Amino acid sequence: MTGAGDWRFNRSLPDLDDLERVQIEEFQRFYYDLWRKGGGTYDVSWLGYQTVKTPNDLIVYQEILTQCRPELIVETGTRWGGSALFLASICDLLGSGRVVTVDVEKFENRPEHQRIEYIHGSSTDPAIFAAVKNYAEQSLSVMVILDSDHAEPHVSSELSMYASLVSVGQYLIVEDTNINGHPVRPEFGPGPWEAVERFLGLDGGFVRDSQRERFLVTASPGGFLFRQS
Ligand SMILES: C[S@@+](CC[C@H](N)C(=O)[O-])C[C@H]1O[C@@H](n2cnc3c(N)ncnc32)[C@H](O)[C@@H]1O
Predict the structure, then answer these.
(1) Cα 152 to averaged position of ligand 1 atoms, centre (Å)
(2) Could you give phi then psi for residue 103, rounded to 5 degrees?
(3) How many domains does the chain have?
(4) Residues contacting ligand 1 via CB (< 6 Å)
(5) If you placed Cys at 224, which of 33, 67, 143, 212 could pair as Cys (CB 3.0 to 4.6 Å)?
(6) CA nearest to 156, candidates 190, 199, 204, 207
(7) pLDDT in tens, the chain (229 residues)
(8) Cβ of 72: how many Cβ atoms within 10 Å?
(9) Is residue 3 domain-resident?
(10) Where in the sequence is the domain holding 92, given as residue range(s)?
């Protein structure tokens, strides 16, 4: 990689000392509260389509796509389609990759793009999963992003199904691990963070990649999982 800075000086969220952690978590709560008031991550768009992403994380996604070049990107939770369009745009620039994205709701005016396939239904419906798996089986390398219903039982179900689609050397990204007090929305109850903890205890094939948290503000702390075996 060229011009990417000196990686020796990068420190990620897990590397912070106690005082730094307090400061960063304070900022994360401040930023997230802006979002809940209608600013923050809801006020992010890509080519005119709204995404529900922290801007830092979009750069991280670009880095992952550039380094790993997945042939297929599976996203659960499409919403307005801005993130699917972002991923497809990076695939355009790289000259490879396509996006299959699943949502239980059909939002109007999602972006049309030759690299995006929309699937309508619940991500954990066996018929929907079978349709996604069919795409995965036709692809040499698969990356998965879980960003639908954030309740722990649903994310755990998704992990038990979709993790198997992820190729060795690719990422499984679990979004919104920051809720339920990690450090935002302490009232949420068990969510993605707890599902990831449970999943990593069961599946030794994935490791957390904390380098993906080096911009310090992310919606996926501990949620960038790299498939190593
Ligand atoms: C946080 S939004 C997704 C944001 C999108 N990934 C982005 O980055 O812009 C969550 C979406 O999950 C969808 N959803 C909720 N439950 C679902 C389920 N069981 N299966 C699939 N999608 C679901 C919601 O309709 C909503 O559009």
Answers:
(1) 14
(2) -145, 145
(3) 1
(4) 51-53, 75-79, 82-83, 102-105, 122-124, 147-149
(5) 212
(6) 199
(7) 444 455 545 678 888 889 999 999 999 999 888 877 765 566 789 999 999 999 999 999 999 999 999 999 999 999 999 999 999 999 999 999 999 999 999 999 999 999 999 999 999 999 999 999 999 999 999 999 999 999 999 999 999 999 999 999 999 999 999 999 999 999 999 999 999 999 999 978 999 999 999 999 999 999 999 999 9
(8) 23
(9) no
(10) 14-227
